[in-house]
Structures are given as structure tokens and as C-alpha cells.
Amino acid sequence: MAYWNNKVALVTGGSAGLGLAIGAAFVSAGAEVVIAARDSQRLETGCKALGHHALGITADVTRQEDVERMIAETIAQRGRLDVLVNCAGQSTRGEVLTTPPEEFARLMEVNFLSLVRCTQAAAPHLIASRGHVVNIGSLAGKSTSRFLGGYPASKFAVSAFSQQLRWELEPKGVHTLLVCTGPIQRDDAGQRYDEQAAQLPDVARQPGGGVKIKGIAPAKLAGMILKACERRKAELIVPWRAKVIVALSQLWPELGDWLVRRLSR
To answer: pLDDT tens-digit profile of 5-38?
Structure first.
């Protein structure tokens, strides 16, 4: 894809999973990729898998100084920045009435405030290149289900922030894409939340907190994200059938809740 030739993409949370798949998609399309993650060992392994077009930067995006260093190193090493993919984040399980406020604060820090830091730090460079901001949100940031604890609240914030970015950055030539996706396919699906969901029904351990939804292949979603950027789309909702639930949840909340119940195990 000639569109991405010689462009530079920075992917946070990119040492594994969806982030690494997005990095691989950019490399395949001709871009230079910078991968940022906390775990230096996983980061090294992930960058080796992507080849010499990938640069790894160890950074914790919940720390302002790390974010500023990450952006500065990207510009120093690659000379420009065309795409910021805010992929770092964490899911969880629980019930809102028993989730401590401190857990809500932690999830807001990881899933939302880190995204704000990275976007603000990268914005001058993205404006210069008339580039892209890609925020990895969640279907839970549009319509919630049970047993997701403080996670949906943090992802709803990402959805609102993305809309605000469109208002502010579009006149400056920068495209903002919000990706609202269901569960991503993982080898450890069903075992990730054993401790958090110990007091919850068994379905809480399943992808989507028990909602019947097929896991999405990371590589397939990564390709969809690149195409959505090329078309400068505002949102990418995956799977597409989820658009019905999202729309109904906004127009008729009771019906949206009923559909989610019907789709739950």
C-alpha cells in the first residue's frame, strides 16, 4: 500500500497481541514502526518479529516523563511521526458496587489518561505531518454488559475524548479514528480473570463478560484499522453487527439492555 510508504507509526502497548499485529500491518504496508511497551524483554521479542523496520522504546505511558521521552526518541530516530496508535490498556472483571474507587482510578490512568498524555505530546508532530490518531476503545465504551467492573467507564471516556479530538484536530488536517472492538482472540481467553472473577458466575471469565460474541483475529482487525485510516473514517465498530446494539443503546436504552441480555450466556 503506497499510502504508508516511508511514514512513521508509533504504537503503544505494542509488544504483543493487537498492538504487535498493528505494528506488523504497518511494516507490511511500507511504514517504519516504533513500538512502545513497559516490558523490555517482550518488546525486544516483538520487534525482532517485525524485522529491521521496527524500533522498540521501553516506556510506561502512565508516566509523563516516559511519554515525553518516547515521543522525543521517535522523532530523533525516525525524523517524523505520521500515526499514533494508542493501544496500551487493560481489561478487568468485577461488579461496580464492589469495585473500589482506587481500581476505577487505576483503570482511568491506564486506559484513558495515558492516551491523553500520548496524544497531547504527539499532537505537534501529527499536525506537521497531517497524520492520524488511532484510539483503541471498546464496544464496552459504547454499550456495557455485566461483570466488567470499572473497565467500561474508562473506555466511555476514550470515546468522548476521541470525538473532542475530531473537533479540534480535523481543521488542522489530522484524522482521528476511534476503534470500538469486541474481544480480541487470545490464547489465554477464559483464564485471564480467574482471580478477579472468583466470586462471580463462571461466564464472567469469558470474553466480553459472558456476551456471546466471537473473538476477533488481531491481524484481521489491524488490516481494517489501516484501511479505516486511509479512508479517514471517524469510527470503526467491529463486528459490524454491534452497530445495531450501539445505536439502540443510544436511542432506546431499555431495548439495548434487552438485546445484550439476549446475547449473554
So the answer is: 999 999 999 999 999 999 999 999 999 999 999 9
Q: Which of 112, 151, 156, 193 is catalytic?
A: 151
Phi-psi region of 82 (alpha: psi -120 to 50; beta: other; left: phi over 0): alpha
CATH number at residue 28: 3.40.50.720
Beta bridge partners of 35: 11, 56
Q: Which amino acid is at 11?
A: V
In this prediction the pTM is 0.93
The conformation of residue 2, written as its DSSP 8-state character, comes to G
Is position 151 annotated as part of the catalytic site? yes
Whether residue 203 contacts residue 209, with contact meaning beta carbons closer than 8 Å, is answered with yes
All residues at 6 or more sequence positions from 60 whose CB lies less than 8 Å from its CB, including other chains:
38, 66
Task: Print the domain residue range for 68.
Answer: 2-262
Nearest to 48 by CA among 60, 37, 35: 35
- Cell readout for 156 is 466511555
Triad 166, 173, 237: Cα angle to 5°? 40
d(CA 145, CA 263): 10
Q: How many domains does the chain have?
A: 1
DSSP, res 16: S
| β strands within 81-142, DSSP E | 83-86, 132-136
Going through 23-158 in order, the beta strands assigned E by DSSP cover: 32-37, 54-58, 83-86, 132-136
Q: Which of 112-126, 181-195, 223-237 has the lowest mean pLDDT?
A: 181-195
Tell me which DSSP letter residue 195 carries: T
Q: How much of the chain, in percent, has pLDDT values that exceed 90?
A: 73
